[in-house]
């Protein structure tokens, strides 16, 4: 089965990438 801590870490990494991507888009639009 999956390691829950791995799933949580992977989820947080994806959230961080989304926030960085959104910040990049906002800076690019301005």
TrEMBL record:
Keywords: Actin-binding, Cytoplasm, Cytoskeleton. The keyword Aminoacyl-tRNA synthetase does not apply. One of its GO terms (biological process) is actin filament polymerization. It is found in: Cytoplasm, Cytoskeleton. The keyword Oxidoreductase does not apply. It holds the Pfam family ARPC4. GO terms for molecular function: actin filament binding. One of its GO terms (cellular component) is Arp2/3 protein complex. InterPro entries: ARPC2/4, ARPC4. Its main location: cytoplasm. Belongs to the ARPC4 family. This is Uncharacterized protein. It comes from Nymphaea colorata.
């Amino acid at each position: 089965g999956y390691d829950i801590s791995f799933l949580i870490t992977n989820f947080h990494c994806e959230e961080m990438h989304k926030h960085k991507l959104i910040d990049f888009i906002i800076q690019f639009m301005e």
